[in-house]
């Protein structure tokens, strides 16, 4: 941690190291993105396609389709969702001053899940114009609305006279989560056999349904959240001293909290909407980065976006190739890899208050 | 100049301050004393801008209510009673948090200087959470000092509001911290400090505010307040004040034990 | 550059519909009854892959598995270069089906079947897709004859026994086939009556409702386990043990795809179930 002692930089200042890690992660993400674009069961090779295209040759329509309609949307969705999940987790943990906080904790995930289940189970009974208008996007849109709505309710409940109480918010989140869970349970009872299996698969998460219309629907929301996050960095750093001290060092605490809540809702709601329940990215990625370069959010948020995107792309590569021609739900991959890593982190840090 | 005019404040539904009017001048150290629950901390939180209040607080001519958080941060640093930290920051990173706002965001040199001032040179690379309570308290003080390093900026004084900054410290570091505050005040900065230790208050303060039941019971020099009769009334027990022969400093000893024994 | 890629895309889409042959030779089946029909049409050798639910005939299991029929993978399917994907009505996700079609792979969704007409329509859809009209007609006729035989046998029952289909009884909790399920359709086809009509779909049933339903026969899916164990489970179940079916030990298990797939073997399955019902009514009569 103090490897920079031979430089004029003060020991304990990890900013240079964090910046180096950021560059490394950006390179890694670039590589993984290229890998994701060039790897696939069809054997279509990005480099060859681009080569022959640049040389003016005709590229087979099928190859274009695979690159442009399957791999590219899937890669972009993976990057956006991975980055959003990791950043959503990091912002939430900063807001709650708890490294174990997760968007699932405040009911955002449960609310989004309820929205999705509603669309899956009752979507068939929606008015024709709604169905025509939303088409395939009914589930993602409903999930996003659910996440958004639950955040709003949560906010109303836990905010008094412009001040948000973290404890109230946490407890209200638990209550909201239980409520959304109960509503989901009722819907599951109403659901038929096929819908039930849909729910199971949606719950496990997948990038398999990635498409340009989905990116067009949820991409801007995720992008907005990702762009807003760096502006929260100083605020979240300050909040780690507590709300009072954050105010003392000059931060507009209430505004920081509002923006953080909106960012979490947007990032998590949109990500869950597009890809279903993908666990552990939001909690493992920020955790690993805090171990590597410290909790300074100026670097943590950027690095979390990069590492989250990279890890999700890698998980997707595994998910789509390990049992080809079938495909594993990506949530299974992230859980199988993420859960042991998380346990390992807990074991290693056990006994330390900072956890 | 820090002035409070008929200051009322409540915690929840309980009224804590019942109208306090007082003022503190830069260049001097004000010690706020009083029994438990008298309202000392609430008073400090009010002038720090942490709690809602009725009345008026002005800091060097500006109404506290009109100042934005970052404008406040440029004028005063606050050390709360219980400082917490959520994530595994290093000591250097904690002190850097004091540079979040204001004119000195790029003055990284202040981190080392503030740490040296509280006798923590060489600790910058350590994890905050792995330090002792007393060391943590000094790191927090260094953070606050870094925030308002120069006691006077552009002719306007800066302030330190501290709540029990030395409660966890050994006697040598208590003295060390008091010296830091003394230098800050002597250079033109303002200091308001809540203290339990009457002897320490008598030693370091230029002025003393005695708070009792949310009211200002007495104010003035240590000799006057700590040596006066209001003290025993506020604390509800006999207190004997005396003066050291050399520097003529006031000191007190609780009287009750001997009284009971006698 | 984006514009040029988009232009390439337009070309791709325009080319797509002409890309497949009249008589497809590389076929992927997504759905158990569809695979069964393809095989019964004598086109089993054209199959290059199948989904997880395609388990009959057993020879299919040596083909690559494309996964669960509602979670297909677009590039993996395209990579197998099929001429056509023939899928059950509930295949998905829709994005994947869309991309499949645009890649020039023909996609045929077989209609859902819950009665003899449905089975005929399903066979017709598959036979048309494979350009096998004669084999299709022959299979239709054969299956229709069996179904008719089952219908007659069903009508011939002196009374209509009450049948309860139990999808699972994990941890003693009953999950049964209610109204509108393929299980109910099969029970009706065999001449029985669904004992549980108060529920829609496959739903958990409370113990007391199970006692009240009082089926004459309990129908289950054969999960490859020992039938005696299933029997013992039911006899030991606090609610089921009180039903007529358990007292008389009338518990039938049949292969899931055979029983509920509504493919070519549906007539045979209905007849088999019917013989169980017949034995029951005869015994009670005698």
Automatic annotation (TrEMBL), chain A:
Q: Which residues cross the membrane?
A: 72-92, 104-124, 130-155, 167-191, 211-233, 259-285, 297-319, 326-347
Q: How does it sit in the membrane?
A: Multi-pass membrane protein
Q: Which GO terms describe its cellular component?
A: plasma membrane
A Pfam family this chain is assigned to: FecCD
GO molecular function terms listed in the Swiss-Prot or TrEMBL record: transmembrane transporter activity
Q: What is its main location?
A: membrane
Kindly list the places in or outside the cell where this protein is found, as annotated in its UniProt entry. Answer: Cell membrane
Note the SUPFAM superfamilies from the entry: ABC transporter involved in vitamin B12 uptake, BtuC
Q: Which CDD domains match?
A: TM_ABC_iron-siderophores_like
Please give the name of this protein: Permease protein of ABC transporter
Family under the similarity heading: Belongs to the binding-protein-dependent transport system permease family. FecCD subfamily.
- Keywords attached to this entry: Cell membrane, Membrane, Transmembrane, Transmembrane helix, Transport
Q: Which GO terms describe its biological process?
A: siderophore-iron import into cell
Q: Which Gene3D superfamilies match?
A: ABC transporter involved in vitamin B12 uptake, BtuC
What organism, scientifically named, is this protein from? Yoonia vestfoldensis SKA53
Going by the entry's taxonomy, the superkingdom of the source organism is recorded as Bacteria
From TrEMBL, chain B:
InterPro entries according to UniProt: AAA+_ATPase, ABC_transporter-like_ATP-bd, P-loop_NTPase
PANTHER family named among the record's database cross-references: HEMIN IMPORT ATP-BINDING PROTEIN HMUV
What is the species of this protein? Yoonia vestfoldensis SKA53
Protein biosynthesis among keywords: no
Q: Does the keyword section mention Nucleotide-binding?
A: yes
Q: What high-level taxonomic lineage is stated for the organism?
A: Bacteria, Pseudomonadati, Pseudomonadota, Alphaproteobacteria, Rhodobacterales
Tell me where in this chain the ABC transporter domain is found: 2-238
Keyword list, A-Z:
ATP-binding, Nucleotide-binding, Translocase, Transport
What Pfam families does the record point to? ABC_tran (PF00005)
Report what the protein is called.
ATP-binding protein of ABC transporter
Question: Could you tell me what this protein does?
Answer: Part of the ABC transporter complex HmuTUV involved in hemin import. Responsible for energy coupling to the transport system.
Read off the SMART domains from this record.
AAA
- GO MF term list: ATP binding; ATP hydrolysis activity
TrEMBL record, chain C:
Q: Where is the signal peptide?
A: 1-21
Q: Does the keyword Glycosyltransferase apply?
A: no
Its keywords, alphabetically, are:
Membrane, Signal, Transmembrane
The family database entries (PROSITE patterns) matched by this protein are listed as:
FE_B12_PBP
Source taxon at top rank: Bacteria
Q: Where are the transmembrane segments?
A: none
Q: Where is the Fe/B12 periplasmic-binding domain?
A: 26-286
Has the keyword Magnesium been applied to this entry? no
* Protein name stated in the entry: Putative hemin binding periplasmic transmembrane protein
User: Which organism is this protein's natural source?
Assistant: Yoonia vestfoldensis SKA53
**Which lineage do the record's taxonomy fields give for this organism?**
Bacteria, Pseudomonadati, Pseudomonadota, Alphaproteobacteria, Rhodobacterales
